[in-house]
Amino acid sequence: MSCNYAEGLSPYEHKGILGIPEKFEPIDKFNKKCELLAQLISKSKHVVVHTGAGISTSAGIPDFRGPNGVWTLEKEGKRPTVNISFADAKPTKTHMILKKLVECNKVHYIVSQNIDGLHLKSGLPRKYLAELHGNMFIDECNVCKRQFVRSRPVETVGKKCSGVPCAAEHIGGRPCRGRLYDGVLDWEHSLPENDLLMAEWHSSIADLSICLGTTLQIVPSGNLPLETVKYGGQLVICNLQPTKHDNKSDLVINYYVDDILERVMNLLDIDIPTYNEADNLTIQAESCVIDWTLVRKDVLALEKIFKAKCKGVKKKKILIKNKRDSSDVVSKNNVDNIEVKSKVIKLEVTNENVANGSMINSEIKTELLDDDSVIKSEQSTDSDVILV
Known about the structure:
Blueprint: H1 2-8, H2 27-43, E1 47-51, H3 70-74, H4 93-103, E2 109-112, H5 118-122, E3 129-131, E4 138-141, E5 147-149, E6 161-165, E7 179-182, H6 193-205, E8 208-212, H7 225-230, E9 234-238, E10 251-253, H8 257-268, H9 281-284, H10 296-310, H11 338-341, E11 345-349, H12 351-356, E12 366-368, E13 374-377, E14 383-387
Parallel strand pairs: 1-2, 1-8, 2-3, 8-9, 9-10
Antiparallel strand pairs: 4-5, 4-7, 6-7, 11-14, 12-13
GO cellular component, one term: nucleus
Keywords: Metal-binding, NAD, Transferase, Zinc
Organism: Galleria mellonella
């Protein structure tokens, strides 16, 4: 359970801002913003999705910083009233939609801060997933660094030894004298190198990054979407609370992520798959050894693509750090200013498209209205709709 995971972490004071009030878009603005997001996905060539705890709340797993989050309630001496076990939790509609979008080549990579294993249970291949903070359903060898899927969530946190021998030889690898450790990071641990590299490089070459259910307060994870912006791409943030990067985004949608993505799938005319236990590797792990190791050749292949596109391109600022840290967040005194500093998205759509109730094929223009009206993309339009 989330509470057990949180209690297993080392004491840490800098957990970020807790309990910021949630906000919801009016339904007309919600629909228009979803239409814009669907069009951005359709037009983009390389889409990366960054997922946080907010995509798992509909599975019964509490988030951490929401009004009823684990850490928010912890400060009040309380615990969440809804808190399903990691073993029993099933992938949400968002998890299944993301898997489908990867299969349809609409989404090209997913960067996850979650340790709940729901991306794994959904059947999403390892090739398309970076798990920056670990996974409750993964063991890692301390010698060969291979990762293996567990049938049950680990009972420890912080890379502690289970005493179980490495299983490499059971999947055709060389015999290894290593021992398996839990794959869940504690605050002092460095992020897994290959996962972090894949996340950073995919974010850098992306022309669109979409953040789902995260306030982006923990670094370096929370700063990775900015790599897309630094290299000229667009940023969309979908979250119920304001985030530290709202003012750097091109579109902010304050609503439930399940509802946002369901609306987007309808606009893209793509069916939403249902969860299938046959795709759940944790169930398969009950009877066989399953390798979950990130393939090194995939890392090297992406490195070539990253260097070809980004080498020699000057970025504004590098924010990557080696360890998990949430000290790089706005102070409590600035909470009230987060929404004020957020960008306003200006949609310009033709009267005909508005009358038809659809913007998926319309010409649009997005402007940043908080700083000198910087234009992100320009296309011909007729009428204005302001989304605040």
